[in-house]
Design brief:
It is a single chain. With 157 residues, the chain is α+β, with helices and mostly antiparallel strands. It has a domain of 96 residues: Peptide methionine sulfoxide reductase (Metal Binding Protein, Guanine Nucleotide Exchange Factor, Chain A, Beta Complex), CATH 2.170.150. It is 22% helix and 38% strand. The chain contains 3 helices and 9 strands; from the N terminus they run H-H-H-E-E-E-E-E-E-E-E-E. The strands form 2 sheets. A 6-stranded antiparallel sheet has the order 3-4-8-7-6-5, with no helix packed on it. Strands 2-1-9 form a 3-stranded antiparallel sheet, with no helix packed on it. A hairpin with a 5-residue loop joins strand 6 and strand 7. The radius of gyration is 28 Å and the shape is globular. It binds zinc ion (ZN). Zinc ion (ZN) binds next to loops. The site of zinc ion (ZN) has 8 residues, from loops. Keywords: Metal-binding, Signal, Zinc.
């Protein structure tokens, strides 16, 4: 009844018809190699989870150059980290958070969580989850990054 079916059946011997049907289906399933180059190309830009605006002065991870924070999000430069000076930021990117724990810092008891660069896993500083003294409440939800883990990036000159 169907013209196409009749034609195919007549033109091709059974083994050849089967082969021509099989190969276009089998090729993409059996061969894992063809999609690989495309996947490599896609995964490379994902090395950095997030990109900050190009027109802003920003801070990047000193170890892998992942963007960390915009200069606009800098709250204070007068903090002390475990290895020297540290900056307080309103928000950061590409940073992962460890479990929160209570620590007595120079300014009293805080619940803090270590933060690390999500790209190279270096511990950068900490996040203030909770401050127990009212004078320190402004730090809650803010991030400390130690100066020796940051480099200035883009448009500082
Ligand atoms: Zn890094």
């Amino acid at each position: 009844m169907c013209v196409a079916q009749v034609l195919t059946a007549h033109l091709l011997p059974p083994w050849q018809a089967l082969g021509s049907l099989c190969s276009p289906w089998a090729a993409p399933r059996v061969g894992p190699l063809p999609p690989a180059p495309a996947m490599v190309r896609i995964s490379k830009p994902k090395t950095f989870q997030a990109y900050l605006d190009d027109c802003h002065r920003r801070y990047s991870c000193a170890h892998c150059r992942a963007h960390l924070a915009n200069h606009d999000d800098l709250i204070s430069k007068s903090f002390q980290g475990s290895q020297g000076r540290a900056y307080l930021f309103n928000s950061v990117v590409n940073v992962g958070c460890g479990p929160a724990e209570e620590r007595v810092l120079l300014t009293g008891l805080h619940a803090v969580a270590d933060i690390h660069c999500e790209n190279c896993k270096t511990t950068l500083g900490w996040k203030y989850e909770q401050a127990f003294e009212s004078s320190q409440k402004y730090k809650e939800g803010k991030y400390i990054i130690e100066l020796n883990h940051m480099i200035k990036d883009n448009g500082w000159d």
